[in-house]
Amino acid sequence: MATKTSPDKKKTGKAADTTNGEPQAFKVIGTRPIRHDGVDKVTGRAIYGADVQMAGLVHGRILRSPHAHARIKAIDMSAAEKMPGVVAVVTGKDMPDLRDKMADLGEGTVNLAHLGANCLAHGKVLYKGQAVAAVAATSPHIAEEALKKIKVEYEPLPAVTWVLDAMKDDAPLLHDNVFTSEMGKLGKQPSNIAVHLHFEKGDVEKGFAEADVTIEREYKTASVHQGYIEPHVSTALWNHDCHLTIWTSTQGAFTARQQTAELLQIAISQVTVVPCEIGGGFGGKISVYLEPVAAILSRKCGRPVKMIMNRNEVFEGTGPTPGSFVRVKLGAKKDGRLVAGEAWLAYDAGAFPGGMIGPGCMCVFSCYDLPNARVDGYDVVLNKPKTAAYRAPGATQAAFACESVIDELAEKLGIDPIELRLKNAAREGTRRVDGPTYPRVGLVETLEAARNSDHWRSKLTGKNRGRGIACGYWFNIGLKSSAAANVNPDGTVTLVEGSTDIGGTRTSVAMQLAETLGIAAEDVHPQVGDTDSVGYTDVTGGSRVTFATGLAAYEVGLDIRRQMAARAAMLWECKPEEVTFADGVFRRGDKSTSFKELAGKMHQTGGAVVGRATVDPEGPSHGFGAHIADVEVDPDTGKVTVLRYTALQDAGRAIHPSYVEGQMQGGSVQGIGWALNEEYFYDDSGRMRNASYLDYRMPTAFDLPMIDTIIVEVPNPAHPYGVRGVGETPIVAPPAALAAAIYRAAGVRLRELPMAPHRVWTAKKMTNDEC
Amino acid sequence: MKDIEYAAARSVDEAVGLLAARGDKARILAGGTDILVQLREGLRDADLIVDVKKIPELVGLSHDAKRGLRLGASTPCYRIYRDAKICAAYPALADAARIIGGWQIQSRASIGGNLCNSSPAADSIPALIAHDARCVIAGPSGRRTVPVAEFCTAPGRNVLARGELLVTLEFPPVGDGEGARYLRFIPRNEMDIAVVGAGVWVKLNAAKDTIAAARIGLAAVAPTPLPATEVGAWLAGKPATAATFAEAGDRARRLAKPISDMRSPAEYRLHIVGVLVTRALAGAVDRARGIVIGHSPNGQEH
Q1: Residues A211, B187: Cα–Cα separation, whole Å
Q2: Which residues of chain A make contact with B271, given a CB cutoff of 8 A?
Q3: Contacts of A761 in chain B (CB under 8 A)
Q4: Residue numbers in A near B263 (CB within 8 A)
Q5: Are the beta carbons of B193 and A756 separated by less than 8 Å?
Q6: How far apart are CA A648 and CA A713, in angstroms?
Q7: pLDDT attached to residue A106
Q8: Given an 8 Å threshold on Cβ–Cβ distance, is B189 in contact with A689?
Q9: Cβ separation of B185 and A697 shorter than 8 Å?
Q10: Is residue B243 exposed (0-12), middle (13-18) or buried (19+ Cβ within 10 Å)?
Q11: Quick check: A8 pLDDT over 90?
Q12: What are phi and psi of B252, to 5 degrees?
């Protein structure tokens, strides 16, 4: 069932499997057609946000807070407004006052006052880099010079940037209207702790009392950024008829439309969002930053306003993932059976409440069948940028802790780390601590594939080398998707769908329509629609697009098949239900016609055929992975070199295996970066000191081996083609897998990310000093 | 970014005239890989940029076994490591030129520019110190020569006075039994600023078992690139053995006064000084003995 794949190896779609009951043989699914947007992207013709040009365009720039925490006493914009070339200057006061307004954004609700203040500050700045004012001018250089002429009077306040410090009673308080929400009740005193979550199952005390071995450890992780290559960019035109059009780089045109409309308190139909091609998002391009600011600048000057962030603005002004503190305790019997688990997680949310603590709590024990467990989680505000989703948001921090304790347990019990995991692996019927019971999932098959892999079976030789393994889980959500397709007289189909394409989903969605219609992937022409040309579609996030928008494409295919069968029935003078369809051919008795032939007769049989579908499937589809890492640690410097790396994952069904592999490789690389060197480095005043790719150390090609991939396919019973979604799971396992490998290479257990050379060296030194 | 004037000088005299007239409001543009970024980010200010790449004397290199190497201050890095003879004679310089930025940067950036940018973490400067390079500086009152070891005065500052311009770097000729190595430590394997850099030059005795003379330059351990003169002097007459290299590393560590910042804690930098000096000495001695050392992107031996 596991398919060892490498990027240059072609896999045919002939492989059938029977795990899901009916054998399925595919013509399109499982093949690797050239992506539909490939030519435009390799030739530079694809239109990204920065490529948007139009007559009368002016350029917006943002003035950002130099302080991590300060009260804004006064803003004097007069000198900037007088500068030749400056056409508009705005501050938070130009946005509606949105106190206590909430908005449902599909993936969750958001406090609009907080969202608005994150776009332009109101009264107080809560992190260095928070937007304070914006200027539009006839050139970006004039706009930048004008920023220097805006005088802001600040009253600096003490700042706090580490989650445990922010939870202390005497910590600087960020909001006087945030009270701890706990078990449905609100605290009486304002607090930096916005939420306390609690989950429990079984009898935890009894469970630990039964344990032969108990291990409890504490883990810390630094804030890291998604690191998408394309900075945020938006162009807004507030037209004279009061219609607002926004061209932007976003993971969700509809959520960008809704956020902008809510923040500006205008009708949703007054806004059109045109999603441009997007150079990466990873969760960081869901929240709006520039869109409403460009809109009010445009409203003020009557011209289209284009805004592009610099890289340092991306680091300092947009959402990283939470820094975290996690304590995990696990108890096991001598035979390796887990009997109890306890986790205590504190995640920073950045400057405003609503971080990633929920999924952190739900994921911490998600890979194991734990009879007794308790999880407490805290959402904590502090003086860092508001966190945003980052690929399996909250899961990586939790897995680093849990998987590292599992590795220690395996060592202490003398059980192979894969066997220990297999013994306790979550499977169909396992109930997670937060409530849900898993349907058919593929963790066991993934671990078995890991055990059987070349990598795991190979011998690792040489000094200072070690191998580690860890698991990862992410939910993979459903949510709403829409699609529509027109049949062309030449038998091709034009597909319009609402999911912005980040990971090749245009093609993976088109392939599912092609499979359903029995035509070639190349005969479907997919495009991503704007908010006026396709039905409501939720964000490209939660690893949902190939699953949910793919399901919409499948439903579109069924709709087209029904309509085409009726056309055949008209030609054959029979009832539509007498026409059958298989392998791209319509039949009745001895009569048959291909999809293509029938499409050619469309205009003689009633005109256009338009298929449409809107879906809201039940998620999650449950993605499990296991990663194997070999490292070498320089004994003198502590520097870690990744020698070999294999990512395994249950994809349910790999629609386009190259993109599944690409997601597994990309997620692994981001996880490796997070594990080894990436971090927001703060000085004592709460200022980030490394807001550039020079000093924010994402891995380069020289820092990585080829990431090998093994796709496991345990089809998702809730999808017609078995899709589970794949994008996020692969970032979850790397830090724990590398920590385990480093331990075997260097003899030290690292419990703080990043596991930078100085940390490995310090840990080794402390171990040596003790000896 | 404000509007800036641009002038491409055709001669050293013209450049000196432009620079003298505008003082610190004029900035020299060689490869531009530092100054353009600094201007854009507001780290330096200028009204006039004087492009010196069109001055023949500043671009190009001439090597002569008897007279040594003359390196035009604006010569791009790739010209150094693409020249086998220069790589053989001045291997620490070539080590450094290979790891400053990536290929695109190396196609523009110059050793002279790296020196004049005067970063304490500059990759080329420890190598220049090790090779005993000298700066030929032109100014309104003629030319003067300054050893590289005395060129930098503070982070981002150097001895260049108003109107002065670095014209060439001069390297002494190389004799038998000499070898050199530059190593830097970075947490990644490229595109990073040195946590510590160490440039080492050695001359061995005729039997090639004893160090006759040595010079060491260090980066990122003090406000300026640091010539570890005492360690070089101590090495003279010592056997070329691992124990000597390790002790030299210890001695170099005692000279270093690093800071803690986002690139490294000071304590770790101190430790790495010892590791790099030890390793660079071993590499330099290997080369002095005719052993060829391969190159990886992070400048560490394979």
Answers
A1: 41
A2: 761
A3: 268, 271
A4: 695
A5: no
A6: 10
A7: 66
A8: no
A9: no
A10: exposed
A11: no
A12: -65, -40
Amino acid at A750: L
Q: What is the mean pLDDT of residues A331-354?
A: 98
Residues A581, A490 share a domain = yes
Give the closest-approach CA distance of A495 to chain B in angstroms: 41
Closest residue of A to B269, CA-based? Answer: A758
Together in a domain, A357 and A446: yes
Q: By the CB < 8 Å criterion, does A752 face chain B? A: no
**Angle A291-A297-A302 from CA coordinates, rounded to 5°:** 115
Please name the residues in contact with B104: beta carbons below 8 A apart, sequence gap of 6 or more. none
Tell which wins on pLDDT, B302 or A204: A204
Q: What is the pLDDT of residues A134-161, one digit of tens each?
A: 999 999 999 999 999 999 999 999 999 9
* Contact at CB, A636 and B275, closer than 8 angstroms: yes
Could you say which of A283, A308, A333 is where a domain stops? A308
Q: ipTM higher than 0.90? A: yes
As a whole number of Å, the end-to-end CA separation of chain B is 44
Q: Which residue of A has its CA nearest to B267?
A: A758
What whole-number distance in Å separates Cα of residue A495 and Cα of residue A556? 9
Of A141, A681, A703, the CB nearest to B189: A703
Q: Do B192 and A694 touch (CB under 8 A)?
A: yes
**Domain B178-288 class, CATH top level:** alpha beta
- Count of other CB atoms within 10 angstroms of residue B78: 16
Cα A353 to Cα A376: distance, rounded to the nearest angstrom: 17
- What are the boundaries of each domain within chain B? 1-54, 178-288
A520 and A455 within one domain: no
Angle at which helix B242-255 crosses helix B266-288, to 10 degrees, equals 140
Q: What residue in B sits closest to A148 (Cα-Cα)?
A: B1
* In a domain? residue A755: yes
Q: Is residue A313 in a domain?
A: no
- Final residue in a domain of this structure, among A590, A615, A640: A615
